């Protein structure tokens, strides 16, 4: 059975909290290895990740992995978060650079995720299993694709135990990425990040921002369904389940689902895989 993990974001309203609880309850049935919680960049959102992992850990009994992004943060702030997570008994961290929020001038004490990984190792030794981000279709700000691979390798050399990819819909991009970094000497597991398709226009907006390509054949078929949400959901589940099957058959060590705090679309994909 491949390792399954689910990603959530911190809810900010009571309604969103209820939605997260419902999703966590439903997805627990798939016995995930862990669930991760994203880290919103900047100021007041800092504490939400900690609250949310605590809730998922205590209320739902799930193994948790808080995301930690270093952009805009100081060494002292990051150290405090790390110490708190260690004291709470968490064993996993997803370490990221993050993006500088508009209007925030200072990038903080760290420039790249590799520096954050090194800092986590320096401060907490081997306590945490560290995952980092990987970009099979190249990070949108990379100088070029080959240097992006080298920068990915630097995160593993700094002490990361594994990676989760940005989502993608073309399995060849993943296989090529894995082959390329293996040739560079990177041996850690690289788990594909899977984005279930529910709302196509939202997905298109996300994808434009993060540099994920939606193949023309998928876009065309989605567009043909217009506002028919049911048809889009059904097609989305079929396309994403087929992608997952090809990834697992090709040797992917697991699947990490971007749930967007809803269980339905992720379950629809998993139902087709079982
Ligand atoms: P890095 O690995 O530091 O890379 C960033 C860019 O810098 C790349 O283009 C890289 O090629 C380049 N680079 C790296 N090192 C060097 C160097 N030495 N010299 C020159 N260039 C260099 N964002 C959030 O804010 N919160 C989250 O919770 C979150 N979770 C995520 C989870 C996953 C699985 C993924 C894939 C992404 C997530 N992100 C999150 C988004 C991520 O923070 C952004 O994509 C961000 O722009 C890059 O983060 P990184 O950790 O990949 O950065």
UniProtKB/TrEMBL annotation:
<comment type="pathway">
    <text>Amino-acid biosynthesis; L-methionine biosynthesis via de novo pathway.</text>
</comment>
<keyword id="KW-0520">NAD</keyword>
<dbReference type="GO" id="GO:0004489">
    <property type="term" value="F:methylenetetrahydrofolate reductase [NAD(P)H] activity"/>
</dbReference>
<dbReference type="InterPro" id="IPR029041">
    <property type="entry name" value="FAD-linked_oxidoreductase-like"/>
</dbReference>
<comment type="pathway">
    <text>One-carbon metabolism; tetrahydrofolate interconversion.</text>
</comment>
<dbReference type="Pfam" id="PF02219">
    <property type="entry name" value="MTHFR"/>
</dbReference>
<keyword id="KW-0274">FAD</keyword>
<dbReference type="InterPro" id="IPR004620">
    <property type="entry name" value="MTHF_reductase_bac"/>
</dbReference>
<keyword id="KW-0028">Amino-acid biosynthesis</keyword>
<keyword id="KW-0560">Oxidoreductase</keyword>
<dbReference type="InterPro" id="IPR003171">
    <property type="entry name" value="Mehydrof_redctse-like"/>
</dbReference>
<comment type="similarity">
    <text>Belongs to the methylenetetrahydrofolate reductase family.</text>
</comment>
<protein>
    <recommendedName>
        <fullName>Methylenetetrahydrofolate reductase</fullName>
        <ecNumber>1.5.1.54</ecNumber>
    </recommendedName>
</protein>
<keyword id="KW-0486">Methionine biosynthesis</keyword>
<keyword id="KW-0285">Flavoprotein</keyword>
């Amino acid at each position: 059975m491949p390792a399954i993990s689910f990603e959530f974001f911190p809810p900010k309203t009571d309604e969103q909290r209820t939605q997260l609880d419902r999703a966590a309850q439903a997805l627990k049935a798939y016995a995930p290895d862990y669930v991760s919680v994203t880290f919103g960049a900047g100021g007041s959102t800092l504490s939400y990740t900690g609250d949310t992992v605590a809730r998922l850990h205590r209320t739902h009994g799930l193994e948790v992995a808080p995301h930690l992004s270093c952009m805009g943060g100081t060494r002292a702030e990051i150290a405090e978060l790390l110490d708190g997570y260690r004291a709470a008994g968490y064993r996993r961290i997803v370490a990221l650079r993050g993006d500088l929020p508009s209007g925030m001038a200072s990038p903080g004490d760290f420039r790249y995720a590799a520096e954050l990984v090194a800092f986590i190792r320096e401060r907490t030794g081997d306590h945490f299993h560290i995952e980092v981000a990987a970009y099979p279709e190249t990070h949108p700000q990379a100088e070029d694709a080959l240097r992006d691979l080298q920068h990915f390798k630097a995160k593993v050399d700094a002490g990361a135990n594994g990676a989760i990819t940005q989502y993608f819909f073309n399995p060849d991009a993943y296989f090529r990425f894995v082959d390329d970094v293996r040739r560079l000497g990177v041996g850690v597991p690289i788990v594909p990040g899977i984005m279930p398709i529910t709302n196509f226009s939202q997905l298109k907006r996300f994808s434009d921002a993060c540099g994920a390509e939606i193949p023309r054949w998928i876009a065309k078929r989605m567009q043909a369904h217009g506002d028919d949400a049911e048809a889009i959901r059904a097609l989305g589940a079929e396309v994403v389940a087929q992608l997952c099957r090809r990834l697992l058959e090709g040797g992917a060590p697991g699947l990490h689902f971007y749930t967007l705090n809803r269980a339905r679309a992720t379950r629809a994909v998993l139902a087709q895989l079982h």
